[in-house]
Design brief:
flat; two-stranded antiparallel ribbon
Length: 181
Amino acid sequence: MNTLLFLVAAPLCLGSVGLFLPAFLKKLGGVGLLAYNLYLTLLLFLKPSGAWAVNGVVLLESTPLSRVMALFIGLLGLLIYVYSLKDLPREYEGKSLPLILLTIGSALGVVFSTHIIPLFIFWGLSGLVLYFYALLGGTGGAEEAKKSFLMVGGSDLFLLLGLAVCRVKTEGEGGEPACVS
């Protein structure tokens, strides 16, 4: 399996399945996976690898900046997860630990994305995870969660609108669109 794909997909899969796992497996699996992800990120930082493509279209690629950012995401993600094991109240533990994994997976997806489609998928997933974090606040958090989700979704809509305007403007000039690759 491609290293980039594993770095992004493994936290997302364990975070999705983690909601249904027993607490012991959730804790052990998360720490083990994040430690292994940090190891792979360090290897990727020291010895860069290629990209992950589907039908010739490169979707995830390792660039020097993305490797540095992924190293910090991996290190901080592992530290946050380990400290959450100790200091998180029991009633939030079952919901919060998988959300940490989903956050790390979506952040790595955003960092390694080179195509606009996976970038929007991972960016939208990070907004959805933000919504679920806000829902952990109880009954008072539901209204704030809805407001934050609408705000993030609205900003995504304006980003799409800006890209569409950029594409239309550059197509009219007969050139290749500079803002959408």
